[in-house]
Each structure stands twice: as structure tokens, then as C-alpha cells.
Amino acid sequence: MIKLFTLLSFLSLLSLYAKQPNIIFILADDVSPDMYGFYGNKEAKTPNLDKIAQEGVMFRTAWSSAICGPSRALIMTGSYANRTGAYYNGFFKPTANGEGFFEAYPSFAKLMQKEGYRTAVAGKWHVGSAEEPHEKIVGFDEYCLWEGIKQLEALPGQPKHTGLWEDDRTPSRFWGPCIIKNHHLMKTKNSDFGPDLFTEFICEFMEKSVKEEKPFLAYYPMVGPHGAREGYPTCPIYGEVGDLGSKKLEPEEKERRFRALNDYIDILVGRIKKKVQDLAIEDDTIIIYASDNGTAVTAKSRGVERGGHVIFTLKGPGIKQRGATDEIMDFSDILPTFVDWAGGSIPQNIDGRSLKPFLSGDSDSHREWIYGCTSTSQLLRTRTHLIEVMNPVMGVPGGRFYYCGTNRQGKGYVRAEKLPEHSAAQKQMRKVLQNFPALQKDDPWFQTKKGKAWLKTYVNPKAIEKHLHNHRDYKHYDEKL
After folding, report:
1. Of 92, 216, 445, 447, which is the most exposed, with the fewest CB atoms less than 10 Å away?
2. What is the pLDDT of residue 253?
3. For residues 109 and 162, what is the distance between their CA atoms, to the nearest angstrom?
């Protein structure tokens, strides 16, 4: 009898250990790590996110692309732009065999569906491929997204958005938002705030999944704190209802609105955490918070490290409490980690590596280097060294090489191309980069009509100067070319 009881207890424990976790993946839009309390910002009001970082793991160095579309493509596919062709907004190379993007590069949503997960996406899609998230090949069971004229025209009856507009072609994502939920245009008032509605959808999706007793993956790429088309809007904790902002706002007011939007995101995260508690699924649910790229103007689209230096913090079952870590990761690691948590087979033809061994405590290290690609710039990082703006198209084929040590966010970096004590590290890093051939001006895509137009805009002197350097407020190290 004792042996039987022991066996049953072991099987019960094994079943608990093997249980597929629910996953809530929240992705902020256009915001750098230095906007958050858990990354050292003493003015930020982000207690819910600070607690996730304290109770779980917060990566001091996490990388993505420095621009929206490629960043989200990297997240969804676990593969770098050199493989997928997703280099920049408006610069997605056609797939080799003429397939759709997600036919050629399966999404994490599709892979999680295969493992029995219910999947949903809310907020802002903006992957850059032709496929919509509700299409079968992409893999989301439900969606609730800020959409535009093209998506409205594809709905039965071609309904019209009667709320607010950011410009003549862009419906609002904030006050009076244009939201399509599961193939139907939502009826919204000008006093409705888009992020509130997306958060409600995520909470409803979680509740339905729990009732169906199925594991779920809720992907929440937010519309904020990214500004509206014409400026930074107000939010429910700051300013007037329905104010979408203006380009004429004073810089100080733009800054206040941006901070308020970011602080409000923390409130929304608190609502999601409360729903998880109310559903009694805390012990079964992993919560991840990240950002797609750096803050607009000061980081976004630049080929420097700050451009693609992003937030990545998480907590939940099977994740050892480590707090801030100096281990490094990039967003190609998200897909294989999800599949690993689900108990599935990680695809072989991707670039990412599962974080599960490190997060669980089975390993004290994750990977030796991380890679970034923004348009024609390449970047590579180890725990101690950095190569950035490696860009033959802009006349910088070798990029810039630095010794960073334990420093982060550009402070204390030492230019090291000519320092013999760092020659071995530089040689090894450049050897890694040989696996990712840099784009050249004679690339066939640049010979197409679309490619020629893109390149003409991209290589003008003003664009080159911005892309190859940090914003003036973040020039903390030697950027000579």
C-alpha cells in the first residue's frame, strides 16, 4: 500500500511538472528599457512590472530589430532577417519559392496550436507580411486589433469607422479607436480608450480558455506607448478624454504624455495580473513583458545598440527567481522557448535557442552571442563586447567595435579595434558574422522598382547620419566612423 501511494504521488508530481503553462506575452510599442523602474528609472511608476522583474528574471541585455515590422517578424518566426528577408518596414524580401511569409516561416502561434493551445492576439499586428493574423496559416484562434482602411474594406458590408482619426488615412488606436474583433467592427465611442478594450479582450480570452480547460497563449502587442500619427495622445490618468495630440505640442508636454502612457500600461498589466489571480491560474501562467524596439526619435530605426536594445522580463511556473541577469538573449529565442514550454519539437531551421534551461535553473548560461539586424546594419554582442553599425551600403563595412565589460546602455564602452588585448574577441565575433552575409548595394532586391525607391530614401546624407549614430542625448561613447 505504501509503495502504491508513493508511486501515485510520483506520477501526480510528474504530471504537475509536465503540465503545459499558460503564456501571456505583452509587447510594448516603441519604448526603451530606461523608461522603467526595474531598469533604474526612478521617475517611472511601474510597480506591477517591477514586481515581475523582482520575482522572475529581467534581462539587462535583450535585443531585437530596431524597427517594428522586422522586430515582430523575428518574434513570430525565431529567425533573423538574413533568413526571412524581413529587414525593415517596407523592406520584406519575397520568399525564395514565392510562398506566403508564414508558409515559409511558421509562426509561434501556429506551432502552439499544434501542441493544443488556444491562441489569441490583441492590439497592433504590424508584422509587415501580407497575411492577416486570423488566417489559418498564421495560427490565431481569436483576434482583437487596431486596424485600418484596408482591413475595414475586407469585412462584409465594408463598415465605416465613425470614431476618431489620427490623419486622413489612419483611424485612431487610442481614443475613439477603430478595432476589429473576430471579423466584426466594434462599436466604440470617442470616450473609449483602445488599450482598455484590448486588455478586456485578453481577460475574456483567458476566462474562456480556463472554462474550456485548455492551455492558452495570449499575445498582446500593445498600441502604446507609441504616439498617434500626429502626436502623443492623452490617457485615462493624464489629460483630456479624446485628445490624440498634435505635432505642435511642446517637447515637455510630449514627454509628460509619453511617460503617462507608459505608466498607464503598468496599470493595464495590473488588471491582467488580477484576472490571473481571480481565475486561480497563477501557478500555471507565465507572464512576459517586452518591447518591440527602442523609443521613437532617440532609438528607433538606428543601427546602434540602443536602437534594438529592448525590455524582456518574465515570471511564472518553472522560472527560477534570478532578478536582473547579465546573461544575454535576442528575440529569435522566443519561439523555441514557447515550443519547449509546450513540450513540442523545436524546429531545426530557425536561429533562436530555447531559454527554458536557463530560466528553469538547469543551466546558468544561455548563449555566447546575440545578433541584431536593422535594414542594412548588423550588430553582434557578447557579454563583454559589441560590434554595431556594420553597414557596407552606408560605407561602414567593418562597423565599430567596443569593449563593454559589465557596462550597459552605452556608458563606459571603450573603442577597441586597435587594442591588442581585445583582438581575440574581435576576431571571434567577426568569424560569427561570416555566417550572416551583410547586404550589399548590388543585392538583387535593390535592382527592383521597390528596392530602388527604398534605397534612394535610405541612403540620403541625413538618413545615414541618423542611422549610424546615437541621438545627441545618448552619445556616451566614441562613435567616429
Report:
1. 447
2. 96
3. 32
* CA distances (Å), origin 359, targets 18, 115, 231, 364: 16, 21, 39, 9
Cell numbers linked to 440: 550589399
Quote the CA–CA distance of 17 and 294 in Å, as a whole number: 36
Rounded to 5°, angle at Cα 311 from 307 and 312: 135
Give phi and psi for 28, each to the nearest 5. Answer: -75, 155
Closest CA to 376 of 398, 394, 399: 394
pLDDT in the model for residue 31: 97
**Which of 346, 367, 388 corresponds to the end of one domain?**
367
Q: Is residue 15 part of a domain?
A: no
Residues 312 and 463: their CA atoms lie apart, in Å, by: 29
φ, ψ of residue 122 to 5 degrees: the values are -140, 145
Residues 411 and 291 in one domain: no
Domain that holds residue 419: 376-474
What does each C-alpha distance from 212 to 182, 206, 207, 243, 438 come to in angstroms? Answer: 19, 10, 9, 40, 48
- Between CA 274 and CA 290 the distance in angstroms is 19
Claim to verify: residue 219 and residue 348 sit in the same structural domain: yes
Rounded Cα distance between 83 and 478, Å, is 32
One DSSP character per residue, 41-66 reads: -TT---HHHHHHHHHSEEEEEEE--S
Enter the C-alpha cell of residue 270.
495590473
The Cα–Cα gap between 383 and 408 comes to 10
At 98, is the pLDDT very low, low, confident or very high (cuts 50, 70, 90)? confident
Asked whether 28 and 289 are in contact (CB, 8 A), the reply is yes
Same domain, 90 and 176: yes
Per-residue pLDDT tens for 110-140?
A: 999 999 999 999 999 999 877 999 999 999 9
Phi-psi region of 314 (alpha: psi -120 to 50; beta: other; left: phi over 0): beta
Backbone angles phi, psi at 428, to 5 degrees: -65, -40
Q: Which three cell numbers stand for residue 271?
A: 488588471
The pLDDT score that the predictor gives to residue 3 is: 55
Which residue's C-alpha cell is 568569424? 431
Strand order in the sheet with 414-415: 370-374, 377-381, 385-390, 400-403, 414-415
Alpha-carbon separation of residue 123 from 108, 251, 481 (angstroms): 17, 27, 40
Same domain? For 53 and 182 the reply is: yes
Nearest alpha carbon to residue 264 among 297, 239, 242: 239
- Per the structure, how many domains does the chain have? 2
Banded pLDDT at 11 (limits 50, 70, 90):
very low
> Around Cβ 411, how many Cβ atoms within 10 Å?
10
